[in-house]
Amino acid sequence: MDKFIDIVQTSIHIIKKALKDPSLIRKNLNRKIINRLFTSQLKINSYDIMVNQTSFPVLEFLKCENPMVSIIIPVYNKWEYTYSCLATLLRNTEGVSYEVIIGDDQSSDETINAAKYLKNVTILRHKENQRFVKNCNRSAEHAKGKYIVLLNNDVNIQKDWLAAMVRLAESNEKIGVVGSKLIYPDGRLQEAGSIMYQDGNPENYGSLETPYKHEYNYVREVDYVTGASFLVRHDLWKKLSGFDEDFSPGYYEETDFCYRTRYVGYKVMYQPLSTIIHYEGITHGRDTKVSFKAYQVVNKERFFTKWKKILESQQIKHGENTFKAKDRAIDKKTIVVIDSRVPLYDQEAGSRSTFAYLKLFIEMGMQVKFIANSITRYEPYTTELEQMGIEVVYAGADNAKKWIRDNGQFFDYVYLHRPDIAQEYLEYVRKHSSAKIWYQTHDLHYLREKRRGEIEKDASAFKKSEYYKKLESKICRLADVVLTFSEYEKDIIQREFRIKNVYTVPLYIFDNFCKPITLAETEKRDGLLFVGGFGHFPNRDAILWFNEKIFPELKKQLPKIHLTIVGSNPPPEVISLKSSSVTVLSNVSDDELKRLHRETKILIVPLRYGAGIKGKVVDALAQGVPMVSTSIGIEGLPKIEKIIIAADSEEIFIEQIKSLIDDPQKYALVSQTYINYAKLHFSEDTVKTIFTKIF
Fold first, then answer.
1. Are 406 and 428 in contact (CB under 8 A)?
2. Which 3 state secondary structure label does DSSP give 74?
3. From CA 585, how far away is CA 576, in angstroms rounded?
4. In the beta sheet, which residues pair with residue 204?
5. Are the CB atoms for 237 and 213 separated by under 8 Å?
6. pLDDT of residue 319
């Protein structure tokens, strides 16, 4: 209760100050109130099983003959902590089959009677005190799982800890070891992976910081992880014969194991979604001058002697370049991608493209960072990036700029998206970094607004167009490289802005392509499909124009024709189009959209204005779905006129739809042509070739 009162009083104090100075709201609300609430909540969770309890209800685990994981807990007395560990383990471990093995090193307290309180747990009471290293090795001989997890008894398990570690290990067969985020009982961070320096001195990264910061919440390759929660492939454990018993009785054995893991070609990873409350020092204390703890000093020297050449050649000096060292990225190029928010890849084409390129940069072996110019942590998208290994910097421009100022010296490339974001950051990046700056237009905003003005006869659109033309011209001149998805817009940038260093890159990247639609399959397809997010005004105009000017006449000639409209957040005027001949679907999943593509006869793209490459068009090409489009819809695609003839009038639009429906052979040929085109222009190899030139 005292802690709760303290939080409330802190909150009231900050709010009173903020009434006098509103700028304090963003600075302090995140930093103080959220921090206090976050750490207090952790404390509540960690103490849901108290370690000083006097009664111990029976804990019954599921019996498992073929577990995915063998959890090994070496113990020596401290029964209350062991029981607390097991109780939270039982409560918070789901989604993965596991067995529990307790290796008892001749305990003399209530641990002797552990079998009274535990069901379906293997209890190994060693004949003599093996001490930590040998206890782990002897106990692991009884493990049956694909993975072994070594777990301290002085921990409290948090929800989904094990599933997160296994999921990461399963994602790549070359991941040998995975460690958890360790947090002290008071809510402060103990470790988010660890760094080893040239002199053999370690650093628990993030120690005593707040655990929610972006620096500590993305998957990373690390020098080593602490053995308090240590997942290892069982076959790798056997290959390396477990912990090196030269480090017996304990300390540096897990560090040595991580170095041996890399030596035989595996990676050591940190998984922030696996959270453990660690009491630390419960069994052996913290004084390195006495008893068991003294081996920490002895084994540090043993570790340094064993790995001296590796340490001197691969590790940095203390405090030299933590930004790179924490990711084991000393030899990697660093690219910082900046956009308005994390890519909402299932909602609009630009985000989907950005998401694909982030994955590409990771595959190309780069250290990838992402700045989201937003105070909102969009989920599940932010966590997905972090699980891919990308540090996501968010909480607004002020926080992002401080991060750039602190770390800009380590950037190699900064990849800016869209004119408004580029305007916010470009000159600031120039000031604090020597990185090469890339600017991705997405589309020329000035061109889109100009065309809107011409269609809607809107003077404000022309005014906006003039503003964006000046802004986009300035940004293109200041950037080192300008990237665009559109060949048409590349020509405009070079001609009107007088910029030479312009590259066209594919909007999407496909690692596999659909098979062309066969003659037999054409008969199974039916109807028209329109796809487009309705937050984008050209899509609204397109479908309304089609329904007013084209669809009524088309229904006269093809009475059974049906139209499906798909798009996020449809406005009332689009929803009102629903009828027996028109279906309106909003916010459909990727799988549902793929199903619609498989069942649809023709994709329609009746855009009258806009700019840039259209994602719906690229999707149709890659899936071999024949389409009818205006010239705006297919604009900017290289040599697209050789395979698609634009339909810019109502009459031609209707004629092309009927032609594809009436001629199955033509339909199948068009599908084959689309697939061939997509393979040539949107494959991963094509994109890597382009970026090799840019680098």
1. no
2. strand
3. 12
4. 194
5. no
6. 74
Per-position b or e across 88-102, b if 16+ CB within 10 A of its CB: bbbebbeebebbbbb
Q: Is 243 helix (H, G, I), strand (E, B) or coil?
A: coil
Amino acid identity, residue 44?
I
Amino acid at the residue 556: K
Distance CA 505, CA 487 (A): 9
Distance, in Å, from the CA atom of 446 to the CA atom of 566, rounded to the nearest integer, reads 27
Alpha-helical regions (H) of 152-294: 161-171, 234-239, 253-263
Total residue length of the chain = 695
Helix (H, G, I), strand (E, B) or coil at 348: coil
Residue 102 main-chain phi, psi, to 5 deg:
-105, 125
Q: What are phi and psi of 31, to 5 degrees?
A: -75, -40
Burial of 559 (0-12, 13-18, 19+ CB in 10 A): exposed
Q: Kindly give the pairing relationship between strand 582-585 and strand 563-566.
A: parallel
pLDDT, tens digit, 9 for 90 and up, residues 178-221: 999 999 999 999 999 999 999 989 999 999 999 999 999 999 99
The answer to whether 491 touches 636, Cβ cutoff 8 Å, is: no
Residue 33 is predicted with a pLDDT of 38
Does residue 614 surpass a pLDDT of 80? Answer: yes
Distances (CA, A) of 19 to 12, 13, 25, 416, 551: 11, 10, 9, 35, 57
Contacts of 674 (CB under 8 A, 6+ apart): 516, 620, 621, 622, 623, 624, 625, 626, 643
pLDDT in tens, 436-456: 999 999 989 999 999 999 989
Judged by DSSP in three states, 256 sits in helix
pLDDT tens digits along 247-303: 988 789 999 999 999 999 999 999 999 999 999 764 444 555 555 567 788 889 999
Compute the distance between CA of residue 416 and CA of residue 403 in angstroms, rounded to an integer. Answer: 16
In the structure encoding, which two tokens stand for residue 149, read together?
């997890």
Q: What is the pLDDT of residue 692?
A: 86
249 preceded by a cis bond (ω within 30 of 0): yes
Measured between its terminal Cα atoms, the distance across the chain in Å is 58
- Which residues pair with residue 484 across a beta bridge? 504
Name the phi and psi angles at 533, rounded to 5.
Answer: -70, 130
User: What is the Cα Rg of the chain in Å?
Assistant: 30
Q: Measure the CA–CA gap between 344 and 97, rounded to whole angstroms.
A: 33
**pLDDT per residue over 75-129, tens digit each?**
999 999 999 999 999 999 999 999 999 999 999 999 999 999 999 999 999 888 8
Q: Are 373 and 424 in contact (CB under 8 A)?
A: yes
